[in-house]
Amino acid sequence: xxxxxxxxxxxxxxxxxxxxxxxxxxxxxxxxxxxxxxxxxxxxxxxxxxxxxxxxxxxxxxxxxxxxxxxxxxxxxxxxxxxxxxxxxxxxxxxxxxxxxxxxxxxxxxxxxxxxxxxxxxxxxxxxxxxxxxxxxxxxxxxxxxxxxxxxxxxxxxxxxxxxxxxxxxxxxxxxxxxxxxxxxxxxxxxxxxxxxxxxxxxxxxxxxxxxxxxxxxxxxxxxxxxxxxxxxxxxxxxxxxxxxxxxxxxxxxxxxxxxxxxxxxxxxxxxxxxxxxxxxxxxxxxxxxxxxxxxxxxxxxxxxxx
Length: 307
Known about the structure:
Elements: H1 11-20, H2 23-30, H3 34-48, E1 53-56, E2 59-62, H4 64-84, E3 97-103, H5 111-121, E4 125-131, H6 136-141, E5 147-151, E6 159-167, E7 169-174, H7 186-190, E8 194-197, H8 206-213, E9 220-224, H9 227-234, E10 240-244, H10 249-255, E11 257-261, E12 269-276, H11 283-302
Parallel strand pairs: 3-4, 3-5, 8-9, 8-10
Antiparallel strand pairs: 1-2, 5-12, 6-12, 7-10, 7-11
Helix pairs in contact: 1-2, 1-4, 2-3
């Protein structure tokens, strides 16, 4: 029993009783015995405080209360059947839908090709692009059913993960910088102010963590929200910056930057596609994440970053 005054399991029995107006036929519809259906009718009468069906000659006739229940109950059951019906096949070419992708700003360089490939298959797609920032777990739990391309370490227990590839970090500075001459040592690297990328995420920065393990620290001269802003500053100053060396190649050429290997061992960062488990079975979401994952995996493979 619940606040409705009736066991929800008995609603279907009530529906068949009201539509068939015959205990035996209603029992066959429900797949139970006549005796079982008679017991259910007695229970429904007690629960609802109404006779519901009474014998008039050789047939059962609904009471006024039963008549008031019949249509709303039938509509409610139809709504449940519709909701539980298997989803129709998703056809990207015909669908009009929205998708949201969040990714580091350095990967927005690939957006023209990504959008072109998506729209070739799904012209009705409206793609919303966000930069990766803040608490990703909260972002994924929010609306819009987003996809996130980010370091795998950002995932939590409710997040589904599919690996894309590895990002290897390098050191960037302007041409004619003093670091462009001679060997780049840890001491020389740390002797210059650094640009630090901060997306206000509670997860530790991999480079800062490695330096802390070694009892070292860097002098941070500038904090920026993304890699592209930092590289623009580096091109016009004596600051140095760490950024994904393969993904930033197009920008470094345009800005005239020098890229060097990291002067200390640093494990590549695993970049993955992240999404909330709630969205796992959504047909449009499934289609979009498959295409986005394949696109970025191909880009990582082309740059030697497939892990």
